[in-house]
Amino acid sequence: MTPNQIKKQLGISYLGGCNSPKLIKSKDRNVMTYGVYLAPHTLSGYNVCPESLQCQKYCLHGSGRNKIELLTNKEGGSIQNSRIKKTKLFFEDRRIFMQLLEFEIRQAYKKSKKENMQFAVRLNCTSDINLEEFTINEENILQLFPDVQFYDYTKVYNHTALTQKYKNYDLTFSYSGDNWAQCEVLLKKGYRVAVVFQDSLPEQFRGYSVINAVEDDARFLDAGGIICGLTYKKVANDYTGGKFQKPDTVFITKEKDAQCIRSEKTA
Questions:
Q1: For 162-176, what is each residue's pLDDT tens digit?
Q2: pTM (2 decimals)?
Q3: What's the rounded Cα separation, in Å, for the pair 152 and 35?
């Protein structure tokens, strides 16, 4: 069967794409990004984020267009159902998943060349899977496309070793609220660390410069040894009876906490 026939049989329109609102922002830096969105284990039955303890309730799966569907229908709509199917396909039929993935990446790559744009791939838009698991015929996705820039955010410390093994892979480590020791080790090695702030971005965090990482997603173009500042995006789980409830979790750094840390550094 052709890729289009396979997708029709599976009941999905695409595996990934270049039209996510966050990924589209990278076009301002002349980057076209292909990304894949999977479903969390609470929906698919498969764990796609090994270090999700602090943030699973506030997963980006419940943001953006999918948030609208979830607030309208708690069971979700076409977006959620599609992500569940894709996640199950990854774990239950890796070969078919990879055939579709390879086809779509090649198509997106051709499109980027026609538009004279740099091409990048983010396979973990709402997951944190080791890219060596994206394998077909004993080759992983990084080996299949050695000239394509892949990148991700991760909370799994050991995943950073992949950047030493594959020159076409870039990672930004994520602060979870209780892993600062790991963050500082990586910052000193030249990695970037993403920190989610509640409302606004400070100029510095724990002695490191903070850049605005909200405006685009092309982190691989940023310098190392810095904090990539993100502001919290409201998700469907933040609403009770239609009213927004501020999340209470350590992975979101409140402005007053950031100020306290700056004061401690300058004291």
A1: 999 999 999 999 999
A2: 0.88
A3: 10
